[in-house]
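In this section we walk through a basic example: taking a raw amino acid sequence and producing a predicted 3D structure, encoded as discrete structure tokens. The instruction is simple. Fold the sequence below.
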Amino acid sequence: MIEIERTLTVNDGTGPDLTVDQMWDGLIDKARNPMRYVPEITACTVTEEFDGGIVRDIINFGKPVTEVVTWYPQRLVHFVRTRGEVMGTIDNDLQADEQGGMQLTFRFRLAVRGMEPGGAEEHAFAQEMATGYLNAVKTTIRMAREKAHGAASSGAGQ
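The resulting token sequence is shown next.
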């Protein structure tokens, strides 16, 4: 089982501050349109919508995956992989730190079929996933900021 968690400060001084609603809009957009945020995802079809979430089929690292995505407004987007070679859960958790600053934590708990738990192959895969997801979270914050404040004010295109 691969378990990784990373937390980023949303309003870290690199651009205009975001409100919780603005950051939440970015998280929902990432759930519906992941290709804009996660380069490893090359296709996404929402196959079902329900109150509080969606079911989506994605192509991730060239492999088909089905995920049930449930959102808990202004707090958590929870992904459960129900089909694919990599099974488990992924969370995007919006929270406040001790000083009241907004933080975005991503965590995943995944098992890879055909890989020895704790082995070198699983460890390498975990590092690749951690890097990819960290970049996706950074992209989500940047794109939410661009949408909320306009590309010119966020330094996009530099």
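Looking at the output, two observations stand out. The helical segments are 20-32, 120-149, 151-154. The radius of gyration is 16 Å. In the next section we compare this with other chains.
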